[in-house]
Design a protein that fits this description.
Elements: E1 7-15, E2 26-34, H1 38-51, H2 70-82, E3 87-93, H3 109-122, E4 130-136, H4 142-156, E5 165-171, H5 177-193, H6 200-213, E6 228-233
Parallel strand pairs: 1-4, 3-6, 4-5
Antiparallel strand pairs: 1-2, 2-3
Helix pairs in contact: 2-6, 3-4, 5-6
């Protein structure tokens, strides 16, 4: 989506990804920016935290949105929209409860989960740029699948020497501000697609994103959209033999 020779950092998170969490809508998302500006992005986000009387290590999370902090979260979203170096893409699965992994050879929910990360990330990459991907660490068993995800992403781009996709690793979100910002945007997109109205503060943030992006957040955007890029995934009939991993 971005054609140049730069190095990019890509920060990924997800919402409602567990198989039996009784949630129909699952959202995966990624924020990316040139690696050369990441320290400046982190510093400016910490500055916004301090401006609102929050400690530098306060973790930005959708689940923490409240009326008392809504102005802080609005400023965080406006920071994202005003900063040309920051880009966001999300994949939304609206009927996760209807998935039947038994129709696919060698697939369980964990394998499908990484297929969705492939779907999220594959369109971001350009052949003349380099990428380092950071996923929020969920458990102690993710190392092997992350290595497999790295291999599949590289193979899809004929990047067998890993010169384009240099690294995929898990990290702790509380240490990385842009991963926290990804959590905020993912949470808002998921909230909008669950048609929830449980929080006035969250509804205000969803409305702000709709206004600033120009999108309803309820349908797929153009593939080349670079600020807020959305893809609504649905399983295709007749793909029982598809193998991604």
């Amino acid at each position: 989506m971005l054609t140049d020779n730069k190095s990019y950092n890509v920060y990924c998170d997800e919402s409602c990804h567990l198989e039996n969490d009784h949630e129909k809508v699952m959202t995966l998302g990624a924020i990316w920016c040139p690696a050369e500006v990441k320290k400046d992005m982190f510093s400016r986000i910490r500055g916004i935290k301090e401006k609102h009387g929050l400690p530098k290590d306060f973790e930005i999370k959708w689940t923490k949105v409240s009326p008392a902090k809504v102005e802080f979260y609005k400023e965080m979203l406006n920071f994202f929209f005003n900063e040309p170096h920051l880009h966001f893409r999300a994949v939304v699965i609206k009927d996760k409860d209807k998935l039947d992994h038994s129709k696919f050879r060698n697939q369980d929910h964990d394998v499908w989960y990484y297929k969705m990360f492939f779907c999220l990330l594959n369109v971001i990459f350009e052949p003349h740029s380099r990428y380092r991907i950071y996923l929020d660490k969920k458990d102690t068993r993710s190392g092997e699948k992350i290595k497999k995800l790295h291999d599949v992403l590289c193979n899809s781009k004929y990047d067998f020497s890993k010169e384009i996709i240099e690294n995929v690793q898990s990290v702790h979100s509380h240490e990385i501000e842009l991963l926290q910002l990804a959590d905020l945007l993912i949470g808002a997109v998921g909230y909008a697609n669950r048609a929830l109205k449980t929080s006035r503060a969250k509804l205000e943030l969803v409305s702000l994103i709709r206004d600033r992006s120009g999108y309803s957040l309820s349908s797929t955007t153009l593939l080349k959209e670079e600020k807020v890029n959305l893809f609504f995934w649905r399983p295709k009939e007749g793909d029982e033999n598809a193998e991604w991993f």
